[in-house]
Design goal:
The protein is of the alpha/beta class. The protein has 3 domains: 141 residues, no CATH class; 291 residues, TIM Barrel (Alpha-Beta Barrel), CATH 3.20.20.80; 90 residues, Sandwich (Immunoglobulin-like), CATH 2.60.40. 36% of the residues lie in helices and 17% in strands. The chain is built from 17 helices and 22 strands. The protein has an 8-stranded parallel beta sheet with strand order 10-9-6-5-4-13-12-11. It has a 6-stranded antiparallel beta sheet with strand order 14-16-17-22-19-20, covered by helices on one side. It has a 3-stranded antiparallel beta sheet with strand order 1-2-3, with no helix packed on it. A hairpin with a 2-residue loop joins strand 7 and strand 8. Helix 2 packs across helix 5 and helix 4 packs across helix 5. It is globular.
């Protein structure tokens, strides 16, 4: 999904937009411009100015708008002007929502300014509304954002945004039961959004940070992966560095941050980011098979304080779903897994209740995953393969449990492939649309891994998490798969060596069907390959649902042995069902 940005509102725009609005009203409407007129022509004029056209009374921006008005009134197709950086489509819902927006705008001006909306008000805010809707926000979200901005310009404290209701929150502590993640309501496919600098943003702009939290709640993420420590030249340059030694009131702010997450029923994947910011402890001793720290300085004190913050937040510590020893710690300050194990053990000894990981290793081979998931780790952590095409990335996720078979049966994909400029070393990033990213999530759940949706915005929040591919699709697919899919013990592909287990037969070596089956006959597969229509032979009778991972649309499907199914996709589909 493309992201549309608002043209800059420079100091001279108030005068120019007022002149345009008066001219529009006088010459084209002979009186009052209606709501659709302001929305359409005011936003068109602003985007023409943003694209470099002269915005004066007789300038090119006004000429283009008036030309289009005359063409439409004459029953002619409007001229399509040369493309520019600030072009914005006209969302279909605008025809019905524009009058609602303009009514709210007039009420806001009347309440707080005791006057009608002026010309530049109509032009500026109708343009912002159109851009927000084109970016996929609903009416209420866009209006709330514009209302807050207007009130701030007027020097009025905006009202607090209501805390949204979470559609399916985690209840109680996230834990492992066999190979299945469970909470108090039973089995669950844990799905988190990566918001690495969310706490660093909270330190600087609480409202913006809590807005991002609310977005995650609305679409159903179980929580967010957040870095507690960020340092170095890059983060200092971006003014997003954070840590107990560099952030005044670090711990009171962290405590507040947890309360804001808790209010939205979100959990945290607590990642230490730059673990090298913390001093090494002097060592540890192994007693009764458990690492015990010899002293309580540096990293130990940090781990202990982290545990106490979680306990203080909700009385149980369950606000943390996962707690790690560092983000790619082998290159951010601590390459020794033993040291990372000591750190997370200190958190656990202080009463921490989260599932523990150490860090993601440099690769995804069994030896690396095992080396970085020694006790007391509960799961392995992996930043999976980012090379090749989308289907190569998806198949690598499948291969971790199928071929690699790490010692820990469960894991968390804490930085999978994702879209956005700040996602590094990723081949064919443009292929990672909603459909492809949701296929990665589905494969992770089937492969007994919690999933963290990853994106450039998830590295450093700028335009907003919702602007990146897969934001809504990933938590949705976590709900559409069987909740106990991680108990489906037999993982397999659908090649000839799995003839007795497979449900469908791929037509060639390019289309892949990978997944898992349960002893009771249930199955879950990810199907992918080149865009188009594919003929797949049914190996055994089944009934199930074929899911479009981008939209969540599920279509009932049945197959009889020997039958051929014709399936179409852009990136792939998810098939869940039962053998008959």
């Amino acid at each position: 999904m493309a992201t549309f940005n608002a043209p800059p509102w420079t100091p001279d725009m108030d005068k120019k937009s007022a002149t345009f609005g008066e001219k529009l009203e006088r010459e084209k409407y002979a009186g009052t411009v209606d709501d659709l007129g302001w929305m359409r022509w005011g936003s068109d004029w602003r985007q023409h100015v943003g694209n470099g056209c002269d915005g004066s009374e007789h300038g090119e921006a006004t000429r283009r708008v008036f030309t289009n008005i005359d063409e439409i009134r004459a029953g002619q197709p409007p001229t399509v002007w040369p493309a520019g950086a600030y072009d914005v489509p006209w969302p279909p819902s605008m025809d019905t929502d524009a009058p609602v927006f303009c009514q709210q705008l007039r009420a806001l001006y009347a309440t707080h300014q005791h006057r009608p909306v002026d010309y530049n008000g109509y032009v500026r805010w109708s343009s912002d509304y159109r851009i927000g809707r084109a970016n996929g926000y609903g009416h209420a979200s866009v209006w709330a954002k514009i209302e807050r901005e207007i009130l701030t310009i007027w020097g009025i404290e905006p009202p607090p945004l209501p805390v949204p209701v979470h559609p399916f929150p985690l209840r109680g502590r996230l834990r492992l039961q066999g190979t299945v993640f469970v909470h108090d309501d039973g089995a669950v496919n844990p799905c988190f959004a990566h918001a690495g600098d969310l706490f660093a943003l909270y330190v600087r702009d609480k409202q913006r940070a809590t807005d991002e939290m609310s977005k995650m709640t609305v679409v159903g993420y179980h929580g967010a992966r957040v870095w507690t420590l960020l340092g170095g030249e890059y983060w200092e340059k971006e003014d997003r560095h954070v840590g107990p030694d560099i952030t005044p009131d670090y711990w009171p702010l962290w405590d507040e941050f947890l309360q804001e997450m808790h209010a939205r029923k979100l959990r945290l994947v607590v990642s230490q980011g730059d673990i090298g910011q913390l001093d090494n402890d002097s060592g540890s001793a192994l007693r009764d098979g458990v690492r015990r720290l010899r002293n309580s300085s540096g990293r130990t004190a940090f781990a202990q304080r982290m545990a106490r913050a979680a306990l203080d937040c909700d009385g149980t510590g369950s606000i943390y779903a996962f707690f790690d020893g560092g983000n790619e710690a082998w290159q951010t300050g601590e390459p020794d897994p033993e040291r990372l194990a000591e750190f997370v053990q200190a958190y656990k000894d202080a009463g921490g209740t989260a599932l523990l990981t150490l860090t993601s290793p440099p690769g995804e081979e069994k030896a690396e995953l095992d080396a970085y998931s020694i006790a007391p780790a509960d799961c392995f952590d992996v930043h999976s393969y980012r090379g090749g095409h989308w289907y190569d990335k998806r198949r690598h996720i499948f291969s971790i449990p199928y071929e690699g078979k790490p010692n820990k049966k469960n894991g968390i994909g804490s930085e999978p492939p994702g879209n956005g400029d700040l996602v590094s070393v990723t081949d064919n990033k443009d292929e990672l649309n909603h459909e492809a990213v949701a296929c990665l999530a589905a494969m992770s759940f089937i492969g007994r891994m919690a999933f963290v949706w990853f994106s450039g915005e998830g590295v450093r929040i700028q335009q907003g998490l919702e602007t990146q591919e897969g934001f809504e699709a990933c938590p949705r697919i976590s709900q559409l798969l069987p909740r106990d899919v991680m108990s489906f013990a037999t993982m397999h592909h659908s090649g000839n060596s799995w003839e007795r287990e497979r449900v469908l037969v791929p037509p060639d070596d390019v289309v892949r069907i990978d997944g898992a089956t349960h002893t009771d006959g249930r199955f879950a597969y990810v199907l992918d390959g080149p865009a188009g229509t594919h003929s797949l032979r049914v190996q055994r009778d089944f009934t199930g649902s074929l899911i479009n991972p981008a939209t969540g649309e599920a279509v009932a499907v049945e197959g009889r042995a020997g039958q051929t199914l014709s399936l179409s996709w852009e990136r792939g589909r998810v098939l869940v069902g039962r053998k008959l």
